[in-house]
Amino acid sequence: MKALLINPYIYDFAAYNFWSTPMGLLYLGSVLRKNSIDIKLIDCLSVVEEKRKADGRAPFIKEKVRKPESLKGIRKNLRRYGISREKLDEELGHVESPDLILITSIMTYWYTGAKDALEIARKRFPSSKIVLGGIYPSLCYEHAKVAVEGADLIVRNNEAERFYGFVEREFGVTLSFKPSMYDFDALPYPCFDLYDKIHFVPLLTSYGCTYRCTFCATPYMHPGIVRRSAGSVINEIVYWHDRSVEKYVIYDDNFLYGPGLYAKPLLRGIIKLPFPISIYNPNALNASLIDDELANLLLVAGFKEVRIGLEAINPDIQKSLGGKVNQSIFERAVGFLLNAGFTHDSIGAYILAGLPFQKWEDVKNAIDYLAGLGVNAHIAEYTPIPHTPLFEEFYPLARYPIADDPVYQNNALFPFAWEGFTDKNLLFLKQYAREKNGLVDKSK
Ligand code: SF4
Predict the structure, then answer these.
(1) Is 222 in the pocket of ligand 1 (CB under 6 A)?
(2) What are the pLDDT digits (tens) for 378-428?
(3) Which domains does the chain have, with CATH numbers?
(4) From the alpha carbon of 217, which atom of ligand 1 is closest?
(5) Please, are residues 79 and 2 in contact by the beta-carbon 8 Å criterion?
(6) According to DSSP H, which parts of 35-129 are helical?
(7) 218: Cβ below 6 Å to ligand 1?
(8) Using a 6 Å cutoff on CB, does residue 324 contact ligand 1?
(9) 365-390 pLDDT, tens per residue?
(10) Pocket of ligand 1 contains residue 391 by CB under 6 Å
(11) Nearest to 408 by CA among 417, 151, 145
(12) Helix, coil or strand: residue 4
């Protein structure tokens, strides 16, 4: 049997590859390969290699495109990030007709790219079985069933069993290897070997989170927390290091949870490796779980930068978001990181902007607060995500029909702009944060 994995191109107003990879798709590809199924990959999200940074990040190739009817009134340029429709079709022309095609869709508002890919693949291979998966159908299943025509199966993140059953039924085969996607220690490593060059490898060390932040879909996607053994993560690093990979990315939802039992032993294991590695964490670490020992381990294990989720400094907003961090917890964590040897430049904090009925001054105050501590402020524009408490409470008040069409869930559209926080305010704040980050006294 032959299977083809497709990571579609995306339509967006802004996008950049911050170590993004289609991890779920690559894990599933490896599972199929273990079942003696031949796998190929077309990753449409190509980047401009000449502009790749030393840390592995790179801008996607992009092209301005016409807006669909639903986005006609938006005064921003819509772009396709990744290869063109024609190029995808051409690449499909070089693939021997697959029995099975897996297409992923990562962000909910990127589903139109997946829809395109499915349409193009369906034209090329009318008799292949096509499966759509990823975060979009996991969070917007009912929408996907209607909006994405031509899929033979649409699967959510926790439906590996359904996927295996489908393959066995459709192809009259028995899969000998059908691991749960939560059984980390049984899962083969994701098939990054299908890329011409591996610039970095994300390490998945857990699923789920014990917190319940009201803006976050993790508790819905993964209601329980599942950890991978530290030994398995170390083995994976050794495996990829033998294949010349030096950069690793951890974007787990709650990497530090239970640090004494997990993150600390894992980091100690990494430190003991006979070679150094670089680690990046684009997702925030939880300030309340950082102590002096952990800060030191993060540094010595190879974390190049630490990003912490501050989210807000207004206590009411902190409470409404779930209350996992406050200023004293945050300052304590920053103190531990500085003492360990992280420079001010290598510590950043995320501040949420654009929450329902948030005032723009709250974000400015948070930027000022971070500048006072000498910590870089990173504005995270709020994305309304279905099945989160904030979404469910406020979706009727968004300025676009975010519950009807996920395309409006894009944070670039600022769905919760209001007179107390306008598009203009947001532009000002982005510039203000840039200036403050640049002006901050790093010698402190
Ligand atoms: S934002 Fe982070 S800490 Fe909060 S629920 Fe999501 S993963 Fe957990």
Answers:
(1) no
(2) 999 999 999 999 999 999 999 999 999 999 999 999 999 999 999 999 999
(3) 2-171 (3.40.50.2300), 200-439 (3.20.20.70)
(4) 6
(5) no
(6) 85-93, 111-124
(7) yes
(8) yes
(9) 999 999 999 999 999 999 999 999 99
(10) no
(11) 417
(12) strand
